[in-house]
Amino acid sequence: MENGNSKIKAIRHFNRFYTRQIGLLNQGLLDSPYSLTEARVIYELAQKETCTATELGSELNLDMGYLSRLLAGFQKKGLVAKEPSPKDGRQILLRLTSDGQAAFAVLNERSSQEINGMLHALSMPEQTQLVKSMQAIEALLGPRPQERPAVVIRPPQPGDMGWVVSRHGALYAQEYHWDMNFEGLVAGIVAEYLQNYNPQKERGWIAEVAGENAGCVFLVRKSEEVAKLRMLLVEPGARGLGIGKRLVEECIRFARQSGYRKLTLWTNSCLLAARHIYQQAGFQLTESEAYHDFGQDLVSETWDLDL
């Protein structure tokens, strides 16, 4: 226990030393009007042409409410501009203005000067030792390389259907600014599925990653020969693992085994990732129509796959 306490004291002592050394306790970082967090936001924005507030908050591990207030202050000072995404007008992109780029240039130059000042006091071997020590700390405390997490596809269990409704409502509001009418639509689809469930002709699948729900999809009977794919969803943190593709493949496999001749689905043109999965699976766009619902101007699409 004593050995553990001495290690904790040593780490805390180093933390206090390093925060003093690089000026983190000063009122403004690098003799600037910006706090450490504000400077980090400016730096991250300078590394990208554009990004969303969600991406920025995830990268810096910042509370979204706090980040929103910080960005509003930057926008008021003319450091940050907001503009709709050319790919999806419902997403807002952030970028540094010319004044913001100038503020970054000052911070970047002062940071380089400060580091050069620290290095100048050390010999070349000491500089090499310092850099290697910092790399060792980063390697030990940073995220470890992980194997691709295992994905489990299973039937829905009690409690899953409430999750399906809740996550559809929350994610579509967050990513596309759809209102609660969409959550109501999903709730109606789920209720109808549960009330009329035919295990020989209908099926649902839940994807799990590390024991947590990460995605879902459902296949329901539309007619004797036509099935409908519904409610495909993949959690943001689980995207890139091929979950959407696997869920759609499960639907196609079951539809063929159940004797359906066609699989159809309804989606919207703004759901680019889902549309890509459907195209890759062989679905064809057969109908599209502009409409207004869920608080947005949208384009509905029907996609069909002959089985």
UniProtKB/TrEMBL annotation:
SMART domains found in the cross-reference section: HTH_MARR
InterPro entries: Acyl_CoA_acyltransferase, GNAT_dom, HTH_MarR-typ, NAT_camello-type, WH-like_DNA-bd_sf, WH_DNA-bd_sf
Alphabetized UniProt keyword annotations: Transferase
Keyword Transferase: yes
Domain HTH marR-type: 1-139
Gene Ontology molecular function: any one: N-acetyltransferase activity
PROSITE patterns: GNAT, HTH_MARR_2
Keyword Hydrolase: no
Residue ranges of every copy of the N-acetyltransferase domain listed in the record: 151-306
Family matches, as SUPFAM superfamilies: Acyl-CoA N-acyltransferases (Nat), Winged helix' DNA-binding domain
Pfam families reported for this sequence: Acetyltransf_1, MarR_2
Alphabetical list of PANTHER family matching this protein: GNAT FAMILY N-ACETYLTRANSFERASE, LD18367P
Designated name of the protein: MarR family transcriptional regulator with acetyltransferase activity
